TrEMBL record, chain A:
Keywords: Acyltransferase, Lipid biosynthesis, Lipid metabolism, Membrane, Phospholipid biosynthesis, Phospholipid metabolism, Transferase, Transmembrane, Transmembrane helix. GO terms for molecular function: glycerol-3-phosphate O-acyltransferase activity. It comes from Cyprinus carpio carpio. It is found in: Membrane. The keyword NAD does not apply. Pfam families: Acyltransferase. Pathway: Lipid metabolism; Phospholipid metabolism. This is Glycerol-3-phosphate acyltransferase 4. Residues 238-349 form the Phospholipid/glycerol acyltransferase domain. GO terms for biological process: phospholipid biosynthetic process; triglyceride biosynthetic process. Its main location: membrane. Belongs to the 1-acyl-sn-glycerol-3-phosphate acyltransferase family.
UniProtKB/TrEMBL annotation, chain B:
One of its GO terms (molecular function) is calcium ion binding. This is Calcineurin-like EF-hand protein 1. It is found in: Cell membrane; Cytoplasm; Nucleus. One of its GO terms (cellular component) is plasma membrane.
Length: 452, 203
């Protein structure tokens, strides 16, 4: 108030600013932070989500009406496919073609199969579309998901404009504040808990602190999560595996249960957070050099699960972010350890904000900005019943079984392809398999002839 | 606030492609989305690397030959700006060969002359997969090379050689030890080319 001596009008402004900040922070505290601490919810976010759905439906109707008026087609994304593929195998096709002619070993028409398959894969393949954001059926009033939606009337444009104001003017600052609060509290409180002697008190406090901070982060993203089958939640001495769409997966799972994280040691802010977290309870951080050593990694993981007092490990076996329409190959490392595996399926609803991190296109900061300026993050989490490796099953088969269960529950496509194809080339051995198959058909027919 | 991919595709272009290839409006816009997603460099054209990034194509034994079919010889400015790039018109023109023949009745707009997806043109597409040097005949050498691509290391040179010899013997009618396009067509006259070289594009 000493400012009032200098600038009589500015004192009024200062007072107003002061009041609004106080109101702002009180609201924040009451409606967001306190519920986060106690794990309760007012249900504001769900009401928000329902109103958004109504808004999107209205927008779609308007666009369809606009298209009809101009007598044009409304763009329908190819989520139903551009082509219908015949599920015919190489052998089947070649046998079919042979039946008519007088069994030559090789027919010039054999090429048709490879040719057609090749062009089919150019038009629509199972892999490349998993590494870009899922296309939406109808527009959700965000510029970034507008690939080809025309017939946007003035009213819709106005709505979009209002949306921009709300998202960037109100939601984004709110969320950034919450994010800083959440992360800051995590670092500070875990360091404090780290000062306690090891024992039940420390574990209890560590759990509570972690949960609270993750819940604040959940609100920082306006994430509306529905957890199913919580009786199957992972227990100590096990490994929790889940499909990977974005770094946010960690926050979503860790706000409902306590896990030991696994990851590479980072520098910068990430490193600060990692060092603080590990003070409160044991997480598994690897140096960059250690990551290559598979035996070392396996040993550290087995040692951790052998200790019943330590929390279940959280691992994403795909190794990279996939766009949440499919589950790709699980790396077998976590399945060789021989402990109980708790599968979890995470499915995001892309209408409210696309959670997929396209790491080849966007950096982390860019991605977080996208996240925090979307409408919301809506997802469902299913805890599947625990699985263990069966007699006579090797690690790869076990991994595939878990993967199939997760894909089925989450309604995702189950693929055998490696997520590493996002950046790397496919292995030559797969082409060699195709060649071997064809050779067998060729040589096989000559063997039949020599027998008859 | 405009749209991303398809704002680059104008209505006039769509109409021209419709006339040339016979695809419908919605098929063209959807294929344009696909073209755009393959175009990592975002320069409106696809290079050979863009195709090779498709895993299912990379493991196809004839993948490289198929990719080559998209890059016609010479630089016809309508389809390629540079020799190693194909633009959307060229992409659609090549894909048009695989339209089912039945679809032609639905689209009366086609320019006169033989449609790209006629039996002859489909056969010609396959012929060009064999004809490595584009001299309009398949020599024994070329046939051997393509066979080698299809079987990998699993069949010996001698066996492959005898397969090639037999094939040429059966097809060659004018004794020049090469298979011309008409000889190729004759050999395959009983094969249901229309069905085997067609892809069911959804409407």
């Amino acid at each position: 108030l000493f400012l009032s001596y200098l600038f009589p009008f500015d004192s009024l402004i200062c007072m107003l600013l002061g009041i609004s900040f106080t109101v702002w922070f009180t609201l924040l505290l009451v409606f967001i932070i306190v519920p986060a601490i106690f794990g309760v919810s007012f249900g504001i976010r769900r009401v928000y989500m329902k109103s958004l759905i109504k808004l999107f439906e209205w927008a779609t109707l308007r666009m369809e009406r606009g298209a009809k008026e101009k007598n044009q087609h409304l763009y329908k994304p190819y989520s139903n496919g551009i082509i219908a593929k015949e599920p015919v195998s190489l052998e089947q096709e070649i046998q079919e073609m042979r039946r008519g002619s007088a069994e030559p070993e090789f027919d010039m028409s054999d090429i048709f199969y490879f040719c057609r398959r090749g062009v089919e894969s150019i038009v629509d393949d199972e892999v490349t579309k998993r590494f870009t954001a899922e296309e939406l059926e109808s527009w959700n009033l965000l510029t970034r998901s507008n690939y080809n939606f025309h017939h946007i009337s003035t009213r819709l444009t106005a709505l979009w404009g209002m949306g921009v104001l709300i998202r960037y003017g109100f939601l984004l600052p709110l969320r950034v504040t919450l994010a800083f609060t959440g992360v800051g509290l995590l670092v500070v409180l875990t360091s404090i808990v780290g000062l306690f002697p090891n024992g039940r008190m420390k574990n209890y406090l560590s759990d509570k602190v972690h949960l609270m901070c993750y819940r604040i982060c959940v609100r920082a993203l306006t994430a509306i999560i529905t957890y199913h089958d919580s009786e199957n939640k992972p227990k100590n001495g096990g490994i929790c595996v889940a499909n990977h769409t974005s770094p946010i997966d960690v926050i979503i799972l860790a706000s409902d249960g306590c896990y030991a994280m696994v990851g590479q040691v980072h520098g910068g802010l990430m490193g600060v957070i990692q060092r603080a977290m590990v003070k409160a309870c044991p997480h598994i951080w690897f140096e960059r050099s250690e990551v290559k050593d598979r035996h070392l990694v396996a040993k550290r993981l087995s040692d951790h699960v052998a200790d019943e007092s330590k929390l279940p490990i959280l691992i994403f076996p795909e190794g990279t972010c996939i766009n949440n329409t499919s589950v790709m190959m699980f790396k077998k490392g976590s399945f060789e350890i021989g402990c109980t595996v708790y599968p979890v399926a995470i499915k995001y609803d892309p209408r409210f904000g696309d959670a997929f991190w396209n790491s080849s296109k966007f950096g982390m900061v860019n991605y977080l900005l996208h996240m925090m300026s979307s409408w919301a993050i809506v997802c469902s989490v299913w805890y599947l019943p625990p699985m263990s490796r069966m007699e006579g099953e090797d690690a790869v088969q076990f991994a595939n079984r878990v993967k199939a269960a997760i894909a089925r529950k989450g309604g995702l496509a189950d693929l055998l392809w490696d997520g590493g194809l996002k950046r790397g080339k496919v292995k030559e051995v797969f082409k060699e398999e195709q060649q071997k198959l064809y050779s067998k058909v060729l040589v096989g027919s000559s063997e039949d002839r020599s027998r008859s | 606030m405009g749209s991303r991919a398809s704002s680059l595709l104008r209505e006039e272009d769509i109409e021209e492609i419709k006339k040339e290839t016979g695809f419908s409006h919605s098929q063209i816009t959807r294929l344009y989305s696909r073209f755009h997603s393959l175009d990592k460099g975002e320069n409106g054209a696809l290079s050979r690397e863009d195709f090779q990034r498709i895993p299912e194509l990379a493991i196809n034994p004839l993948g490289d030959r198929i990719i080559n079919a998209f890059f016609p010889e010479g630089t016809n400015k309508k389809y390629t700006a540079r020799e190693d790039q194909v633009n959307f018109r060229g992409f659609m023109r090549t894909l048009a060969h695989f339209r089912p023949v039945e679809d032609n009745e639905k689209n009366k707009d086609l320019t006169s002359g033989e449609p790209l997806n006629s039996r002859t043109n489909k056969l010609h597409f396959a012929f060009q997969l064999y004809d490595l040097d584009r001299d309009d005949k398949i020599s024994r050498d070329e046939l051997l090379q393509v066979l080698r691509m299809m079987v990998g290391v699993n069949i010996s040179d001698e066996q492959l050689g005898s397969i090639a010899d037999r094939t040429i013997q059966e097809a060659d009618t004018n004794g020049d030890m090469c298979i011309s396009f008409s000889e190729f067509t004759k050999v395959l006259e009983k094969v249901d080319v229309e069905q085997k070289m067609s892809i069911r594009f959804l409407h």
